[in-house]
Design a protein that fits this description.
The complex is a heterodimer of chains A (214) and B (369).
Chain A (H helix, E strand, L loop, with lengths): L11 H32 L4 H12 L3 H12 L3 H25 L3 H9 L4 H31 L12 H10 L2 H29 L1 H4 L7
Helix pairs in contact in A: 1-4, 1-6, 2-4, 3-4, 4-6, 5-6, 6-8, 7-8
Chain B lengths: L1 E9 L5 E10 L4 E5 L6 H8 L7 E6 L2 E2 L5 H6 L1 E5 L10 H5 L1 H5 L4 H14 L16 H13 L5 E5 L7 H18 L2 E6 L2 H7 L2 E6 L3 E6 L1 H6 L4 H7 L3 H5 L15 E3 H6 L5 E5 L5 E6 L20 H10 L4 E5 L5 E6 H16 L13
Parallel strand pairs in B: 3-8, 3-9, 6-7, 7-8, 11-12
Antiparallel strand pairs in B: 1-2, 1-4, 4-5, 9-10, 12-13, 14-15
The chains are: A mainly alpha (214), B alpha/beta (369).
């Protein structure tokens, strides 16, 4: 049994690159949208419910429908896959950003105001860093979901490793599906581990709490 | 100087937090706002740095209406210490303390150098500087909170229940530390507490507020204890005003008796039924001997040093002593004399009488600053 990927699909590494660019691109775009949305929802609590409802409605649109709809605007491109996945990520990221910001202790926020922080400065240099653990927790879930979801793009010809699954059926080659599954799972594990590392490095104050002294 | 001029805080729903507050906080003194919850003490405090804006009247800092100032600029010139310290969990101790200097435009290096100086001044070692707040005890966090408030050397310090979240032993340390710092720095401090004992201990002046935000009395701690303005203030001060007032009287000129002090050899020969204080060869009190029985020496307890300890300590020592007498010692611990609880009470009455006839009392003293 040959494990070779048919040439017309591209090499393994090309597929891997495509897959990562689309999955991580969607996560990054989702984060870039979720941060200002979350900050706005904390600043003006009234907008939180409508924003959350909108995210849920968008999340309920089937991905295939979303792709097909977007082809009219962005063609058969990575962007067509990235945009819907970024929008889906919002449904998980926005609540995490909001919860993270709301978990900032009131005494911390009050003392920042009392020392003369402007509101934007406080949000960026106090509230947001303290929300990092919650934000990254949301980002991990969204990213693993994206890595899995990119495969659906195969139905419009932009699925990266997803193409292995369609080819597996067309060519009656189970080995291609297995390669696709293993590659996707390993990728998800590695990316998740990297995000855990990013969190540890970006929140040094969370690591050094064990040796409390009096 | 901080001036409240007929200040009112009325919320849109009709709640009145502060009602017609007028008082002055003189420069370089420590004023305590004290009262039960709902008396508007924290609201009043926060009107000084514009975290709350008055709905009527004026709050003046250094003669200028705070509403005419940019709140951010105003706040950078007023230190603020909050319950639970409110330290930034994501910044090290030194960077927490460097916050306001940084906001005022100092470079990171300058701000950290300033922060290290201030940390030393509040009694925190350099080894704590690189830790994160979660690695500190509650008392240490509160000290860092004070250091952070002092870092830019503001003339005014606002403290909102600064010591109420720490245990009583640490609280006493922090209170003593604040008095020590204030004796050196002479800031204009407004401190909010619900603890009347803390108010009496710390305040040069105490403003007692009643629910609804009305000022009940604004006076020195001693005036409060001797002449509370009304039943509310008297009730808030509690039932042991007289005993606490004794904290303000010195033990310097108490009439001490030396005749019950004997050496060990004399104690063997002594007859009669009076109490004897047996002293060592070097004059230190060793214990009490009950003259009517031939028993072991009973413990002396905690002796007092005349002039250093207030009358309250003397009375306390007399009450706890097996003989009913407090023992006075000099700085080296040698017995100077004894005084009974009755004699202490007589001395207090004499001091009161002198005060009422207007004669300055030799027993009066200010708190040790």
């Amino acid at each position: 049994m040959s494990l070779r990927i048919p040439g017309y699909l591209g090499t393994f590494w090309e597929l891997l690159g495509d897959h990562l660019v689309m999955a991580l691109g969607a996560s990054l775009l989702g984060l870039v949208l979720a941060l200002p949305l979350g900050l706005a929802c904390v600043r003006w609590p009234r907008v939180y419910a409508p924003v959350l409802a909108a995210c849920s409605v968008l999340y309920s649109i089937p991905s295939l429908a979303f792709f097909v709809l977007l082809i009219a605007f962005t063609g058969i491109s990575r962007t067509t896959v990235i945009l819907p996945l970024a929008v889906y990520a919002l449904a998980g990221l926005v609540p995490n950003v909001v919860d993270g910001l709301r978990a900032v202790p009131d005494s911390v926020r009050q003392s920042a105001v009392a020392m003369g922080f402007s509101t934007p400065r406080r949000l960026l240099t106090v509230d947001l860093p303290l929300a990092i653990p919650a934000v990254i927790a949301g980002l991990r879930v969204a990213t693993v979901a994206n890595i899995s979801m990119v495969s659906v793009g195969a139905l419009i010809g932009m699925g990266a490793f997803g193409a292995l699954f369609t080819a597996s059926v067309q060519l009656d080659r189970l080995d291609l599906a297995i390669i696709g599954i293993i590659a996707t799972v390993v990728m998800a594990l590695v990316v998740d581990a990297v995000l855990v590392l990013v969190q540890r490095l970006s929140t040094p104050w969370m690591r050094r709490t064990s040796k409390v002294s009096r | 100087m901080i001036t409240f001029d007929n200040v009112e805080k009325r919320y849109p729903d009709g709640t009145v937090a502060v009602d017609g507050l007028s008082l002055e906080v003189p420069t370089g003194t420590l004023t305590v706002f004290v009262g039960p919850s709902g008396c508007g003490k924290t609201t009043s405090l926060r009107m000084i740095n514009r975290m709350v804006e008055p709905s009527g009247g004026r709050v003046l800092v250094g003669g200028r209406d705070v509403l005419d100032e940019d709140p951010r600029i105003l706040r950078r010139g007023i230190g603020y210490v909050i319950q639970h310290a409110g330290l930034f969990p994501h910044r090290t101790v030194v960077d927490n303390v460097a916050t306001v200097p940084r906001l005022l435009g100092a470079s990171r290096k300058e701000a950290r150098a300033t922060a290290m100086d201030v940390l030393t001044r509040v009694g925190l070692g350099k080894e704590l500087a690189q830790r994160y707040p979660a690695q500190l005890s509650g008392g240490q966090q509160q000290r860092v909170g004070v250091a952070r408030a002092l870092a830019a050397d503001p003339p005014i310090l606002l403290m909102d229940e600064p010591f109420s979240a720490v245990d009583p032993v640490v609280r006493k340390d922090l209170q003593d530390e604040l008095l020590r710092l204030q004796s050196v720095l002479a800031k204009t401090i407004v401190l909010v507490t619900h603890d009347i004992d803390e108010a009496i201990k710390l305040g040069d002046r105490v403003a007692v507020l009643r629910p609804g935000g009305v000022l009940a009395q604004y006076a020195t701690p001693e005036e409060l204890l001797t002449s509370p303005a009304d039943d509310f203030v008297a009730g808030f001060l509690g039932v042991d005003r007289g005993v606490r007032l004794m904290s303000f009287f010195s033990s310097a000129d108490l009439p001490l008796r030396t005749d019950p002090i004997v050496t060990r050899d004399d104690a063997e020969l002594a007859v009669g039924d009076s109490w004897l204080l047996v002293a060592d060869d070097d004059g230190r009190p060793a214990g009490w001997r009950d003259g009517s029985t031939d028993t072991e020496l009973l413990p002396v307890g905690r002796p007092f040093v005349p002039g250093r300890d207030p009358l309250r300590v003397v009375l306390d020592a007399a009450v706890l002593s097996p003989s009913g007498h407090a023992v006075a010692v000099d700085d080296d611990g040698r017995a100077l004399g004894v005084i009974s609880g009755e004699e202490v009470a007589a001395a207090v009455r004499a001091a009161h009488n002198r005060r009422e006839t207007g004669t300055p009392s030799p027993l009066e003293m200010r708190k040790s600053r």
